[in-house]
Amino acid sequence: MIDDGIAHALPPESIAQHARFMADYERIRQSEGRGSESADFYLGLPYRDTSGRNREQWQMRARSYDYLVRHLLDGTDRDGRILDLGAGNGWMSYRLALAGYRPCAVDLLTNDQDGLGAARHYRTRLPKLFPRFQAEIRRLPFADEQFDAAVFNASFHYAENYEASLRETLRCVKVGGVVIISDTPWYAREESGRQMLAERRAAFLQSHGIAADSIATLGYLTDERLHRMEDALSIHWDVRRPWYGLTWAVRPLVATLRGKREPSKFRLYVARKGA
């Protein structure tokens, strides 16, 4: 079914499974001030957050995106097809389309504030709006080897099964193409990741009255988790470390001095599909 340009590709059982997660997530995102009534907000992302509510996060997204385009998609044809996984309001697909690529946006949310419906704001700047699909990553509605690259857009940590999600994504990418994980938190120790999830659940309960754990998403990466994916899928991760600024660089030192847990780090992980 296609509604307002969005192809709804969730099977009935998946709709039921994800219903509470989507409702909780939309509620939290709205409470956090995501989205806007102004088209300028969406058109400025990720370089300018006109709402001022999540400026630091968007600054990090901008640096990840710039690094991705300049260094990781440099071998991809300018009209190459890019799968934008966890596209949210479609900002990355919009930027990729402006750069000449052919993006395809995938997300569970379709609302007009923070989901695929928000992409309506890009119609005035693009000759043709990019395709949008409501779908889950472990069951993508695409043919084998349909895309030149796929990017997990601050979304890989929401997967319930990393290997299954990555295997399905690799299926959709051409031989020689790349799968990129962007803006997913990494920890040196598993314990730090588990503690982060516990802190997040407690914060969500206090702020929103919900724990946001209706689906057991994995939440973070560690070297061990990355190695397991390499072994299971016969891939190799090329780890890139963009510069996110001095504040991000000194976070581990500040946490140590304050007796806090290890803070997350953000990197880009690139796997090339072999024959």
UniProtKB/TrEMBL annotation:
<dbReference type="InterPro" id="IPR013216">
    <property type="entry name" value="Methyltransf_11"/>
</dbReference>
<protein>
    <recommendedName>
        <fullName>Methyltransferase type 11 domain-containing protein</fullName>
    </recommendedName>
</protein>
<feature type="domain" description="Methyltransferase type 11">
    <location>
        <begin position="83"/>
        <end position="181"/>
    </location>
</feature>
<dbReference type="Pfam" id="PF08241">
    <property type="entry name" value="Methyltransf_11"/>
</dbReference>
<dbReference type="InterPro" id="IPR029063">
    <property type="entry name" value="SAM-dependent_MTases_sf"/>
</dbReference>
